[in-house]
Write a structure and sequence with these properties.
It is a single chain. With 138 residues, the protein is mainly β. It has a domain of 90 residues. Helix content is 4%, strand content 43%. It is built from one helix and nine strands. The strands form three sheets. A four-stranded antiparallel beta sheet has the order 1-2-5-6, with no helix packed on it. A three-stranded antiparallel beta sheet has the order 7-8-9, with no helix packed on it. A two-stranded antiparallel sheet has the order 3-4.
Length: 138
């Protein structure tokens, strides 16, 4: 399966490059078309003064018809595309998983204790190792 890489960031609702020990992963999520009018691409509402998207908006809207969808409801319908190199078996692979973040326990090396974080979870296609792409931690 060959995944389509985005040509620019305007196509993406989410994009990140992460290192996972000896491995790495590139994750992107394409924006979906409007479920109401089927013409526009759903995106964050834009600031009327600057024309830039409102980063912390709690909803997505269609620029064509003005249809508004809550952030959680919209993001649960998206699909994450992942290109990865497994840190355990060094396998290079590609996968698609639902873009649903789950709470996972991770060891924070700075604090020297376990912490909980939101992450997209997927498995290596060769060794079945559980791999996680965490939301940026503060």
């Amino acid at each position: 399966m060959a995944l389509k890489f985005p040509s620019n960031m305007d196509e993406c609702a989410y994009f990140t490059r992460r290192t996972m020990g000896q491995g790495n992963a590139v994750t992107w999520v394409f924006k979906e078309t409007c479920p109401k009018c089927k013409k526009g691409t759903m995106g964050k509402p834009r600031d009327p003064k600057t024309g830039k998207p409102k980063i912390r908006a709690k909803e997505y809207e269609c620029p064509e018809c003005g249809n508004v969808v809550e952030k959680e409801a919209y993001e649960d319908t998206l699909t994450a595309n992942i290109q990865y190199n497994c840190p355990k078996c060094k396998n290079s692979g590609e996968t698609q998983v639902p873009f649903a973040r789950k709470k996972v326990q991770l060891f924070d090396e700075e604090k020297q204790k376990k912490v909980s974080a939101d992450a997209v979870v997927f498995f290596c296609s060769k060794c079945k190792e559980r791999l996680v792409i965490t939301k940026k931690m503060k």
